[in-house]
Write a structure and sequence with these properties.
six-stranded antiparallel sheet
């Protein structure tokens, strides 16, 4: 069974400058471990998941007016939370709790101001569709996934999902969300190496930064994932004290599936 942990944010502040990194952690580590039955091909069991909403403040009236004016000038919406002003990364440690070596991986989904991307929600949506008889099961990918690693018994391995990794998530999510880029093409290609799938994204786009991160963890034997979300806030948009929080209502992403139709329950 998938265990979902809604994160209670623990803030660790380094230094006094407003540009010093701030760190946000889930309420508790993620624990996962186990294999699906042999009939499934020995795949890793369902992940353990934590959703972290970063505490950004609401824009002021003056900021809203400036964003509206810039949006009108450019011809598309300009986000309040911009990638060029906010840098996000994730530091993590995987601990193998077992006496056996095992395989583990970390994945990241999330939401910006316009689009929410959640693998579990997409899979649930696909379950409400009737697919053509000759259609293969749709491929559902996370926005980002680490390379699977072997963790020796009773050992810790540390890693980092870098700021440029999160920037790629930002580009991909905006491309498939706001600008309707081809889903698999966008996610399978590195936008810094090839423009495939990015043709509809304006050259002058103001890239939105994630305000919500969904971190999922899979392992083949019992393991624990400890992680921190690191934020460098260059625009002073993280909330201070009891400032009202910014709570966007992004649209859930659902892939286009040729020939699929909603399953309609029979009439009583």
């Amino acid at each position: 069974m998938r265990a979902t942990i809604k994160a209670a944010l623990l803030t660790l502040v380094v230094g006094c400058s407003s540009n010093s990194p701030k760190y946000f952690a889930p309420a508790k580590p993620l624990e996962a471990g186990g294999m699906m039955p042999a009939m499934t091909g020995g795949m890793m069991a369902s992940p353990s998941i934590a959703a972290i909403e970063l505490p950004f403040r609401r824009p002021t009236d003056q900021e809203r007016t400036a964003l509206q004016e810039e949006s009108k000038k450019l011809g598309f919406q300009v986000p309040f939370l911009q990638r060029e002003d906010i840098d996000v990364s994730i530091q993590y440690t995987i601990t193998n709790l077992s006496a056996e070596p095992g395989q583990a991986s970390v994945a990241v989904d999330g939401a910006n101001e316009y689009t929410s991307y959640d693998v579990a929600a997409i899979q649930s949506y696909i379950g409400t569709l009737m697919l053509p008889p000759d259609a293969d099961a749709p491929t559902v990918l996370p926005l980002f996934q680490t390379t699977k690693v072997i963790v020796p018994a009773k050992t810790k391995l540390s890693g980092n999902i870098r700021e440029d990794d999160v920037a790629e998530i930002d580009r991909d999510l905006d491309a498939i969300g706001r600008f309707k880029g081809p889903y698999l093409t966008v996610l399978l290609n590195d936008s810094t190496a090839t423009p495939l799938g990015m043709e509809m994204v304006p050259k002058t786009v103001k890239l939105p930064q994630l305000w919500k991160l969904i971190v999922s963890f899979k392992a083949t034997v019992p393991m624990r994932l400890d992680f921190l979300v690191r934020v460098r806030d260059q625009a002073n948009v993280l909330a201070e004290g009891k400032e009202p929080l910014y709570k966007p209502s992004p649209k859930a992403f659902t892939p286009m599936i040729a020939g699929a139709v909603p399953i309609v329950p029979p009439m009583p």
